[in-house]
Design goal:
The complex is a heterodimer of chains A (283) and B (114). With 283 residues, chain A is α/β, with parallel strands linked by helices. Chain A has one domain: Rossmann fold (3-Layer(aba) Sandwich), CATH 3.40.50. In chain A, helix 3 links the parallel strand 6 and strand 7. In chain A, helix 1 runs parallel beside helix 4. Chain A is globular. With 114 residues, chain B is of the alpha+beta class. Chain B has 2 helices and 6 strands; from the N terminus they run αβαβββββ. In chain B, the strands form 2 sheets. A 3-stranded mixed sheet of chain B has the order 2-1-6. Chain B has a 3-stranded antiparallel sheet with strand order 4-3-5, with no helix packed on it. Chain B is elongated, with a radius of gyration of 17 Å. The relative contact order of chain B is 0.26. The chains are: A alpha/beta (283), B alpha+beta (114). At the A-B interface, strand 3, strand 4, helix 1 and helix 7 of A face helix 1, strand 1, helix 2, strand 2 and strand 6 of B.
Chain lengths: 283, 114
Amino acid sequence: MCDTCGCGQPGDEVIIRKPGEHNHAYVHDGVKHNHSHDHSHSGEEHTHAEHDHTHHHHPDHTHGAREIVVEENILQKNDLLAEHNRGFFEAKGMVTLNLVSSPGSGKTTLLEKTISALNNRFTFAVIEGDQQTMNDANRINATGAPVVQINTGNGCHLDASMINSAVMHLDVPDKSFLMIENVGNLVCPALFDLGEAFRVVIISVTEGDDKPVKYPTMFQTADLCLINKTDLLPYVDFDVEKAKEYAHRINPQISFISLSAQTGEGMDEWFTWLEEKMVTGTD
Amino acid sequence: MHELSIAMSIVEIAEDYALRGNAGKVLEMDIEVGDMSGVVIDALEFALQEAVRNTRCEQATWKIIQVHPVARCPACGWEGAIDSPFTPCPDCGEYGLEIIRGKELQLKSLVVDT
């Protein structure tokens, strides 16, 4: 099945391609899904008790029925594939980062500046995730780093199988950084392990300093929080210490780097963090 | 709307178990959803209605068992039910409660026809 949205309608297909390349549609495990958009509830019965939610198409079906115990985690397929990815990345000595944030936090600018500053010392490969357009991949392509764009169509997050397919399109050298720029969304990507070594959440000072408590799941699963656009601090009502305190409440282990990808302020600390991860591996 | 991916995974797992158990149709699915799992139950139910179409689960009913969060304080060892894990420990006031229940996202069991 399709792990993204499952829908086979035009515009919903996941597309993976490099800049200047023809389309490579994402393989959906050979299963087609038919979606009509009839959401009629006639003849159906909904019960919304406090603890149980039941949904009945046919209220009586006891004849010849038997129970099968399943007890399987619903995200297991994604998690297994993520572990498979992780093993592949580790075997190649790669350091893989999953960069997550709201739209417009400056992920792509951060990547452009990082690659340009460090590409004489390290090799980088990039997977870009967006619903539509090659814009971000084209920007990364200009830095010279190999890049693949995943367009998720109507999908709201990347998943492990998309990363698995995208990596096949990238010739990633051993000992590289693989930077995965997730779809700009602070909710859904939190649930989907991609096989990354580190999850980096980016917030910019033009957002509210209460982002960590508003979107706790994302901050709870992140290893590092980058606070971007610090050059704009004099003009906005953003309290860096308050944002850190909120994030610490949710995840006492999270670390922080404040920086401005635009002016370069604080970027050295980020570069040192990256360098340490390449030296120490994924420990 | 990641609930559609989740709903499709549920149907996929259910079909797989039904097939391996030589069953025809899935009649009922028991699904455990923790309050801290990141899944909105109403959205999941809406997505399930779509996800079951043209599958063995098309006529299935489902029961969603909601699991309320239980946490443990690593600082003092307090354990109990909580509304949110992002509040301080009610006993010692430290932040950083560990969720020990409430993150479940599991297909528990199926009822199938013979």
